Amino acid sequence: MSTSNIAVIGDRDSIFCFHAVGVDVYPAEKADDVKAAFDQVYEGGYAVIFITEQSAIHIEERLREAAWRPLPSIVLIPNNRGSLGYGLETLRHVVRKAVGADIMQEDE
Amino acid sequence: MLLAANPTRMHLLRLKKRLKLAIRGHKLLKDKQDELMRRFMDLVKQIQGLRQEVERDLHRAFERFTMARSVMSRASVEEALALPGKRLDVGVTTQRIMNVEVPLFEPRAEGRIYCYGFANTSGELDVSLRSLDAVLLRLLELAQTEKTIMLLADEIDRTRRRVNALEYTLIPSLKETIRFITMKLEELERSNLTRLMKIKEMAEER
Question: Are B41 and B99 in contact (CB under 8 A)?
Fold first, then answer.
């Protein structure tokens, strides 16, 4: 078997290079494609799913409910056009919910 | 809030026992919450730097890859990478932090990243793949830490709710009910006493 239990979802240009380092790649850019890819990956027994922020926007709802499951671990990554700060924002939201205060200050 | 209760001595005893238990449970949960919070803070501090670093490194790797692509045709890049020579896998084990099961990822790599002939590819491709390979391990670390933070956050939330339920609902209402029953019993005793006194008086008059 040559499949890995790590998957990447995102636009083709950004994530194609992941193919070479031994990770499964699911190119998807439009909302419906991303949804379909995510469903496939989510049920596919992957332990780690990387998803570009640009693609993640389309499935925010699904990501939020998946976040509390022990597996898979879903991580937002920037694509080749740079970060939207969405990954950090999600984290900040979680921290604020748990602690009740915003303790992650901006480091400039 | 007053609990539904018969003002009897037996019930009073039972309530007192429950109050004791509730206070002990509250203390334990509070300790658990403090410890969870401490670990959570450590992780949060750790992940902030990690995420920024990984995002920066990943961005650099993407830049290099774009550079590599610009000197080769799209078709030849895809051809070069079509059959990966490396496979990266993670072994998943779990670890318990304060009774919360969190995943531990252990990367297992096989093969090498250069899966193409060097004749038709540029040196930039090698460099970009190497930097991507390096950042991928940190990405896995990020995945693990982020998941742990999510799960701990959930547990903290739940624990806080239980602590609050005990502290602001159960314990006060138990105390109030105990007070109510004690007063009622005292009142009964007093009324009994006055009745006895009255009867004694009547008996003496006769």
Answer: no
Contact A17 B44 (CB under 8 A): no
Domain ranges of chain B: 9-197
Longest Cα pair distance anywhere in chain A, in angstroms? 47
**Measured between CA atoms, how close is A33 to chain B, in angstroms?**
21
SS3 label, residue B187: helix
Report the chain B residue with the minimal C-alpha distance to residue A83: B55
Selected for mutation to probe chain A from B139, B149, B160, B161 (highest A CB count within 10 Å) is: B139
| CATH 1.10.287.1080 matches B9-197 | no
Q: Which residues are bridge partners to A7 per DSSP?
A: A24, A49
Backbone angles phi, psi at B71, to 5 degrees: -95, -5
Tell me the ipTM for this assembly: 0.81
Separation in Å, CA of A45 to nearest CA in chain B: 12
CB-CB under 8 Å, A71 with B103: yes
Contact between chains at A6 and B89 (C-beta distance less than 8 A): yes
What digits encode the pLDDT tens for the residues A72-108?
888 888 877 766 777 777 788 888 877 776 666 544 3
What are the domain boundaries of chain A? 6-99
CA distances to A64, A82, B62 from A2, rounded to whole Å, are: 30, 30, 25
CATH number of A6-99: 3.40.50.10580
* DSSP strands (E only) in chain A: 6-10, 24-27, 48-52, 73-77
Of B84, B103, B136, Cβ closest to residue A73:
B103
Chain-chain contact of A97 with B153 (C-beta, under 8 angstroms) = yes
B120 confidence band (pLDDT: 50, 70, 90): low
- With a pLDDT cut of 90, the percent of chain B lying above it is 34
Q: Do A23 and B48 touch (CB under 8 A)?
A: no
